[in-house]
Amino acid sequence: MIDVYAVEGTFPDRAALAVDLASAVMRIEEVPVIPMFRENTAAFVHELPPDSLRNVAGDGAHVRVQVLTNAGALDRDKQLAVVRELTDIVAAATGDPGLAARTWVLLTEAAPGGWGLAGHANTNEELVLAARAEIARLS
Questions:
Q1: Hey, is 21 helix, strand or coil?
Q2: Which of 8, 72, 78, 139 has an alpha carbon 20 to 30 Å from 130's alpha carbon atom?
Q3: Do the Cβ atoms of 4 and 35 come closer than 8 Å?
């Protein structure tokens, strides 16, 4: 799951941004391109009132991207790739390359059992088994 927070009007095409971010995370995680992951890897773009975001210096021209993955999904190389690529996607979506310097990306891991799909709190092992079962059904 990906959550993007920015002031209103930052992104002219929020839907395209959401798809681009979710696709990038899925590709970097190297998960199989199966319905389970395509339908449950998503980005939410949250628009905030202009006066609701400020840093200590009073600047509100920032974007926060929070990525929630299952525990262990991102090794160090994947962490670096997610932060770089999502930052680049956000800046490109605004047409402002300078936004890359004002984009914060937070990586968060769900605890085992803390990743719910279809009403079930999944452990990493359960997610892997469910993905393998879906791949077998599709084969």
A1: helix
A2: 78
A3: no
